[in-house]
Amino acid sequence: MEINTDSFFKTFRISSAGLSAEKKQLAITAENIANATTTKTLDGTAYKRKTLTREMISRRPIFSNNLKAASLQLATQSGGHMTSSYYQEHPVNRTGSREVKTEVEELEQFKRIYDPGHPDADGEGYVNFPDINVVSEMLELISASRSYEANVTVMNATKSLAKKSLEI
Amino acid sequence: MVSNLMEKTLAPLLRKSLTAYSTRHTAIGENIANVETKGFRPLKVDFEAEFRRALEKNGPVGQKTNHRHLDIGHTVDSLHGRIKETDAQVNIEQEMADLARNQIRFDFAVRKLRGGYDNIKMAIRGRVG
Prior knowledge:
The structure holds two protein chains of two kinds. Chain A is α+β, with helices and mostly antiparallel strands. Chain A has four helices and four strands. Chain A has a two-stranded antiparallel sheet with strand order 1-2. Chain B has a two-stranded antiparallel ribbon. Chain B is 57% helix and 3% strand.
């Protein structure tokens, strides 16, 4: 049977990466909500709203490398034959590389509210509050937890496919 | 002899479709994991169109007498089911529906393949069970 079990394990890896990204998103959103009114953090400013950005970085396969690797791929007919070292170092890469970069960004943006009695008020009586909208954070929270569930569903589906293929 | 017997059944076709379904499953998994990823282009495996062309058997088809021969025309052997990038946005509902459909198709192919093997087993024993 040529079912690629490697492909199932790859799916597990992808789904778990998705799960951890959603978990990170949940943690960041929770932090934002918990600090919606924090006016002073360790560095002296108000709490800065955090966002998680996920960006795809894809590199196209380099044709000349692939051509070299493919043309230097010598056939070995006996176990004693040596393999071409170039091919071992640079295997043919048809798809290029695709990776996702996740980054936590802090937004340098504050809401200025007039409150002269506040201990963190500046000379003009204004206080810097974090620029956080609790309602939109709640939305973010729901969306992240739904995405988490979607990844769990994929994980379960992968499990059932892998088990099913053992029944052949 | 037995391998010849297997080649005459649906087994090669089912084998190809199982491989394509598991590839598609990986693609769907990747799409769902990257719902929120900027710059991500959803992946798609369009196996059915290729499959249909192979079944219609239009045009000349080259017979292969050596595994190193190249494919001529659409045959079962030339089916691949490759992952392609599309330019659309990830639609989570669509992906979940595709996931369910793909899973059912996989189950179907497994059951069909197993049925084929069971029939051969029955023929070898000469009795049911």
